[in-house]
């Protein structure tokens, strides 16, 4: 269940409130409402507050249109390396762009960290004005996407199209990318750059959006012009997304009317959609695509189709065809190693596993086990020194982050924390993680400890808060304590007040309908307490549900974990008619979120077993084999 931790407001009446917190919250509210007089009235009382810099920023931000250059320069000179310095620099650059002060804009822009798309386009505008001939090359990376871009990009693209730097082929490339992304609005707006007689008919695009199969079946389907063919390919892609077999049938009938390049492209679209639905025809349809250049996304699904078919040669060929950046991802390195080993190329396979095993995560653990490596303690288990933790406690940015955390403003605190730890060496990262752990901010402790690459502290990566509660719940329903810990770490990062945008709550992120169903099974009248502050009820309900899933899914923790995240029906649909290696099941889950979720839950469980005293726990043994698909496994109201 994807978390979007909402900034719950714990008012300053709490035991952790600092002096001036109520005034700070009032100042924050005044700025948000545009009540600058009230903000200025409160400012003198907040000069010594840990978040005083925010008050200063809000005051200056409220005057940005008045061109306060001297004050902006002074603020940036003192605070330019801080999060708020970067934020003010972005605000100031937008104001300079409004004033068409491109000289000052270009002087300030290089210092901006991670510019947003509108500022990237404003920077391109400034370069067009100053006749920078490299602007077209740099603009292409923004242009060649299927997503909607800010208004600031429009004038840049207008100029580049007018100058011929963005060609008609470039325009068609963006149209196709928009179609692939299902973004008909972007496709239609992009097509306006084409000559009037060569644009796709907007009404045809709307027809495809409503009913793509009917469009393909029309007797009057036109395919003579490129515009008509692109719309037909759009219809093919939309049909394939829901019914790949119908798309394949239509494409066999229509492909002869298309150029060879489009024929191959169409089969790549159909094959990828089929692979996502685990259809056995997927590999055959990929072969129909011939030597067409497939995207990394399409090649990834070709690998997954080959894994389900145990076609190791296709796994090797598809991973070799990926871009170097994609090919280096741990998932593809692991399966490439497995494919090489299956083809009696053990030396090459072990060379891949040896490097991968020194990393962290699901595929690193699997690679280590392929080599027969036992899960002994990491070579460097570094415990931060008290002096290092003390230094981080005095770090201005981390102090602001913790001040936000104590106010319950986690989102703002996360931003300050992430900015502050950028570029830190491993010792300071682990000291910062220890500081967060002592504050009870486990989500930051975990995320920060994971950033350390050379040094490891397993207690910070895998903390065990609420130990008595989790141990008791595991014992009551007779499931593995390490598995519960692995799931909680992924679900809520041990934040008891966590709330997802979908409505899931608590440490185990239980949905209201699920809580009500469990309460009915347990005879628990107050089911809403599982969603509020009752930690025990939340963990007990979540553990009970996990046990129910484990029982329904033949004792497979992999299937139960997938069902916990995506629902029992989906976890059932993703099974195979025959028994399937669990690692293949996981890596062929169609939902990116669930795929990543199950990997992490299972890898977490191995590491927690180790923390809890079972250092020889094996990931492969935990994964096991996913039994063949059978029956209908609905569990009441839990389907998301």
Question: Which properties best describe this structure?
Answer:
640 residues; disordered C terminus; two-stranded antiparallel ribbon; Lysozyme; globular; 38 helices; mainly alpha; disordered N terminus
Characterize this entry briefly.
With 640 residues, the chain is an all-alpha fold. The protein has helices spanning 21-32, 36-42, 52-61, 69-79, 83-98, 102-108, 117-129, 135-143, 152-162, 168-180, 184-191, 202-210, 212-217, 226-242, 244-254, 260-276, 282-288, 296-309, 312-321, 324-327, 330-342, 346-356, 362-370, 386-393, 396-406, 410-420, 426-438, 442-451, 458-461, 467-477, 481-491, 512-522, 535-552, 557-566, 568-573, 582-587, 592-611, 619-623; strands spanning 580-581, 625-626. Among the domains are: 386-455; 467-626, Lysozyme.
CATH architectural group of the domain at 467-626: Orthogonal Bundle
Radius of gyration: 28 Å
CATH topology label of the domain at 467-626: Lysozyme
Number of helices: 38
Class from helix and strand fractions: mainly alpha
Low-pLDDT residue spans: 1-16, 636-640
Residues in β-strands, percent: under 5%
Largest sheet: 2 strands, antiparallel
Spatial separation of the terminal alpha carbons: 10 Å
**Spatial strand arrangement across the major sheet:** 1-2
Silhouette: globular
Q: Let me know the average pLDDT.
A: 92
Task: Summarize the amount of helix as a percent range.
Answer: 55-70%
Q: How many E-type strands?
A: 2
CATH top-level class of the domain at 467-626: Mainly Alpha
Outline the structure in words:
There is one protein chain. The protein has 640 residues and is an all-alpha fold. Among the domains are: 386-455; 467-626, Lysozyme. 62% of the residues lie in helices and 1% in strands. The protein is built from 38 helices and two strands. The chain has helices at 21-32, 36-42, 52-61, 69-79, 83-98, 102-108, 117-129, 135-143, 152-162, 168-180, 184-191, 202-210, 212-217, 226-242, 244-254, 260-276, 282-288, 296-309, 312-321, 324-327, 330-342, 346-356, 362-370, 386-393, 396-406, 410-420, 426-438, 442-451, 458-461, 467-477, 481-491, 512-522, 535-552, 557-566, 568-573, 582-587, 592-611, 619-623; strands at 580-581, 625-626. Strands 1-2 form a two-stranded antiparallel sheet. Helix 27 (426-438) runs antiparallel to helix 28 (442-451) and helix 34 (557-566) crosses helix 37 (592-611). The longest helix has 20 residues, at 592-611. The N and C termini lie close together (10 Å). Mean pLDDT is 92; it is low at 1-16 and 636-640.
């Amino acid at each position: 269940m994807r978390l979007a931790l909402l900034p719950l407001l714990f008012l300053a009446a709490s035991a952790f409130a600092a002096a001036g917190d109520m005034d700070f919250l009032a100042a924050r509210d005044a700025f948000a409402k545009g009540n600058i007089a009230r903000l200025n009235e409160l400012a003198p009382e907040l000069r010594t507050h840990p978040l005083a810099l925010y008050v200063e920023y809000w005051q200056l931000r409220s005057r940005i249109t008045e061109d306060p250059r001297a004050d902006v320069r002074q603020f940036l000179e003192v605070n330019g390396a801080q999060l708020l310095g970067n934020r003010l620099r972005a605000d100031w650059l937008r104001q300079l762009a409004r004033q068409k002060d491109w000289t000052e804009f270009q002087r300030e822009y290089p210092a901006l960290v991670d510019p947003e798309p509108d500022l990237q386009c404003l920077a391109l505008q400034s370069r067009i004005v100053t006749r920078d001939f490299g602007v077209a090359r740099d603009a292409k990376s923004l242009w060649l996407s299927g997503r909607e871009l800010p208004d600031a990009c429009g004038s840049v693209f207008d100029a580049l199209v007018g100058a011929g730097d963005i060609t008609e082929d470039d325009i068609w490339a963006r149209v196709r990318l928009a179609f692939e992304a299902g973004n008909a609005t972007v496709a239609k707006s992009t097509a306006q750059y084409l000559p009037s007689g060569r644009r796709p008919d907007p009404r045809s695009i709307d027809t495809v959006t409503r009913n793509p199969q009917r469009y393909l079946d029309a007797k009057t389907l036109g395919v003579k012009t490129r515009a008509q063919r692109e719309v037909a390919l759009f219809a093919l892609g939309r049909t394939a997304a829901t019914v790949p077999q119908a798309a394949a049938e239509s494409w066999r009938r229509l492909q002869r009317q298309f150029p060879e390049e489009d024929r191959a492209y169409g089969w790549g679209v159909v094959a990828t959609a089929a692979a996502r639905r685990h259809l056995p025809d997927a590999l055959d349809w990929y072969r129909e695509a011939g030597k067409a250049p497939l995207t990394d996304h399409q090649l990834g699904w070709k690998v997954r189709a080959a894994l389900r078919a145990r076609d190791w040669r296709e796994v090797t060929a598809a991973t070799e065809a990926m871009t170097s950046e994609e090919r280096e991802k741990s998932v593809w390195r692991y399966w490439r190693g497995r494919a090489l080993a299956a083809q009696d190329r053990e030396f090459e396979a072990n060379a891949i596993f040896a490097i991968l095993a020194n990393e962290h995560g699901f595929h690193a653990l699997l690679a280590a086990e392929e080599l027969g490596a036992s899960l002994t303690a990491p070579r460097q288990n570094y415990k931060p020194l008290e002096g290092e933790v003390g230094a981080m406690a005095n770090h201005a940015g981390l102090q602001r982050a913790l001040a936000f955390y104590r106010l319950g403003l986690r989102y703002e605190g996360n931003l300050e924390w992430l900015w502050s730890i950028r570029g830190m060496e491993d010792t300071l990262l682990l000291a910062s993680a220890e500081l967060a752990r002592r504050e009870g901010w486990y989500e930051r402790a975990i995320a920060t400890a994971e950033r350390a690459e050379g040094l490891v502290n397993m207690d910070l990566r895998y903390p065990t808060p609420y130990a008595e509660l989790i141990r008791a719940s595991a014992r009551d329903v007779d499931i593995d304590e390490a598995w519960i810990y692995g799931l909680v770490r992924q679900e809520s990062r041990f934040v008891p007040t966590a709330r997802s945008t979908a409505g899931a709550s608590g440490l185990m992120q239980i949905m209201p309908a699920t809580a009500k169903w469990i309460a009915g099974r347990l005879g628990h009248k107050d089911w809403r307490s599982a969603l509020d502050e009752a930690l025990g009820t939340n963990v007990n309900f979540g553990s009970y549900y996990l046990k129910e899933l484990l029982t329904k899914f033949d004792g497979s923790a992999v299937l139960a974990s997938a069902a916990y995240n995506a629902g029992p029906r989906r976890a059932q649909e993703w099974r195979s008619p025959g028994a399937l290696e669990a690692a293949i099941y996981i890596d062929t889950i169609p939902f990116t979120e669930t795929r990543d979720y199950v990997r992490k839950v299972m890898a977490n469980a191995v590491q927690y077993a180790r923390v809890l005293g079972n250092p020889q726990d094996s990931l492969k043994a935990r994964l096991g084999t996913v039994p063949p698909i059978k029956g209908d496994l609905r569990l009441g109201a839990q389907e998301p």
